[in-house]
Amino acid sequence: MAKGFTVWFTGLSGSGKSTLAERVRDILLERGMKVEVLDGDEVRTNLSKGLGFSKEDRDTNIRRIGWVCHLLTRNDVVAISAAISPYKAIRDENRKLIGRFVEVYCECDIDTLKGRDPKGLYEKALKGEIKNFTGVSDPYEPPEKPEVVVDTAKEDIDTSVQRIIGTLEQLNYIPAGDGRGYSDDEEESIKQRLKDLGYI
Amino acid sequence: MAKGFTVWFTGLSGSGKSTLAERVRDILLERGMKVEVLDGDEVRTNLSKGLGFSKEDRDTNIRRIGWVCHLLTRNDVVAISAAISPYKAIRDENRKLIGRFVEVYCECDIDTLKGRDPKGLYEKALKGEIKNFTGVSDPYEPPEKPEVVVDTAKEDIDTSVQRIIGTLEQLNYIPAGDGRGYSDDEEESIKQRLKDLGYI
After folding, report:
1. CA distance linking residue A164 with residue B106, whole number of Å
2. With an 8 Å Cβ cutoff, are A46 and B64 in contact?
3. Pick from B47, B71, B72: CB nearest A64
4. What CATH number is associated with residue A126?
5. Which residue of A has its CA nearest to B35?
6. What is the distance in angstroms between the CA of the first residue and the CA of the last residue of chain A?
7. Is the pTM of this model over 0.90?
8. Which residues of B are catalytic?
9. Is A52 helix (H, G, I), strand (E, B) or coil?
10. Structural domain of B87
């Protein structure tokens, strides 16, 4: 019986968290795991209704998502969170609570994000029409020791997905899959990173 | 692999929900199931911080617990909720969302509850020191078709627990256990109730 773990995406709005979360979910489901993605409208409706974007409310939201990930993880489900989660301290609290926790930092420079901006959010935030917008008018604290960094401005999505899957394999959270999607060099680089950070 | 379900306790403060929830959890854990009890301080801290006791806030709280039970249930975990959950419509919403849902109504007359009152809550509520106290100054809507009714003023806890376990067995949510804790007559009465209500 596979044990649960949490994949915690963090990064600015538009940095690719949800897209990557769904791709990772699909691969894990195909491998027979139980997976829940906590993301977007469903979380806002079902878990965080009434919360705003002050630091306190953001912290409450991220702690709450963390607690649900904790319940799922300890019952052998893979929980995937795709919230911005701007504050390091609260992400680290969740890491401590959950234990089996893989942090994926979706890095992406702000100019690329402004260029993408499919919902026009950055434009509105820059005009001051949205307050407390992370990366524009609200802080974002990047993780110091994320298990995975993906740079969605520079690398294609398959590369990012395969690095995440490779990391889960190297951590022995999932068995090595058939038809590995990454090279020996990439595997070596994943291993080296996890060793350098003290995760393996 | 056992499938998940939700046992939803409902009833006034002090009616025995938490005690029964823990007893049922222990029996299901002994039978090798995965079980989470959503109750009390842990829920208030981790899920419902900031919510009060207005009808709207209570509804939000009960919907939120229901959503977490839904996530657990669809991942083959047994979720047990022990919240007062005073409003029928929201409990029924949760029943619909979750599907595999067993409602346990903890009946107990108010005089018995006032007599027990281990935390002095009824005394304070009757003096007006606690506002919106269910059963005193806030409504409680009993369920119309609960799978199980336990009367904790009149029956001992083992009888209540065995009726709940017997109901889970009759619904085929759990396999029949060794050393059944209830008589043939009790089994017949459980079956008859579930048939009369259209649950089997």
Report:
1. 48
2. yes
3. B47
4. 3.40.50.300
5. A75
6. 22
7. yes
8. 85
9. coil
10. 5-196
The rounded distance, in Å, linking the Cα atoms of A30 and A41 is: 25
Q: Which residues of chain A lie closer than 8 angstroms to B44, CB-CB?
A: none
Nearest in space to B182 (alpha carbons), one of B146, B143, B144, B156: B156
Pairwise CA distance, residues A53 & A99, whole Å: 27
Reported ipTM: the value is 0.94
- Number of domains, chain B: 1
Helical spans, DSSP H, in B117-183: 121-126, 157-170
Sequence letter at residue A45: T
Spatial contact of A98 and A6, defined as CB atoms under 8 Å apart: yes
pLDDT tens, per residue, chain A with 200 residues: 689 999 999 999 999 999 999 999 999 999 999 999 999 878 988 999 889 889 999 999 999 999 999 999 999 999 999 999 999 999 999 999 999 999 999 999 999 999 999 899 999 999 999 999 999 999 999 999 999 999 989 999 999 999 999 999 999 999 987 767 889 999 999 999 999 999 99
Residue B190 tokens, joined = 């459980």
